[in-house]
Amino acid sequence: MVLTAGECMMSLREKVALVTGASRGIGAATAHKLAARGAVVAVAYKENQSGAEKVVSAIRASGGTAAAFQVAIEDDASVQQLLADVVKAFGRIDILVNNAGVAGTRSFGEIDFPFFARLFHSNVWGTIQLTQQAVPHFPESGGRIVNLSSQRAFSPRDGTGVYAASKAAISTLTQAFAIELGSRNITVNAVAPAVTDTDMTAKMPAEKKAGYAALTPLKRLAEPDDIADVVAFLASDDARWITGRTILADGGLT
Questions:
Q1: Which residues are the active-site residues?
Q2: Which one of 6, 44, 71, 169 is separated from 109 by 20 to 30 angstroms, measured CA to CA?
Q3: Per residue in 177-213, pLDDT tens?
Q4: How many domains does the chain contain in total?
């Protein structure tokens, strides 16, 4: 069966997607992408309410359905409240995109426990906690979980060792959870971007950005939409036979 262009764009029709860290950058682009393909989107944010509301307003203006929800993924009570609110609003969860997380750099010899704990608590425990609590709200027919890893998990440099290790943990958990959730017809995959041109990299010196761009065969940094397209693919039925994988979306850098 060949789908028309319109049918392809609506391949997520009536699916409910929860995207964390969706007020900006890759998360916002992912929320827009999933909505454009027909999904109802729960736009989760931690602090940037205005950004989240802007994403919701744009989705609604395009004819989609979305709502904003606040959450601190590291906090058990906050995650419980988020999921209760999303299920109350939309009935279930079909797609979970674990995009929220934090970054940071510390060179060897400068790493302390608070720095380590902040990155692992948010990036690793936050993903574990939200995933474990969200899965009971998936339908019996299954669903999709997409985690955000990083190219740095494969190539740590410039003081990114702890951050890279936290993202390597995400890739390992992705494979482990895929094995455990396969019997429920839930696929679990991850996307590993390299440096992406978002507001989080806005303070990066221009020469450093140019250096990263020069290292890729495509000679540019990723845009949020480049990564969101891969997430949307993994969230769709087109990726039904892919699970436990981390997809490097790094423009050939690695």
A1: 163
A2: 169
A3: 999 999 999 999 999 998 887 776 767 778 777 877 8
A4: 1
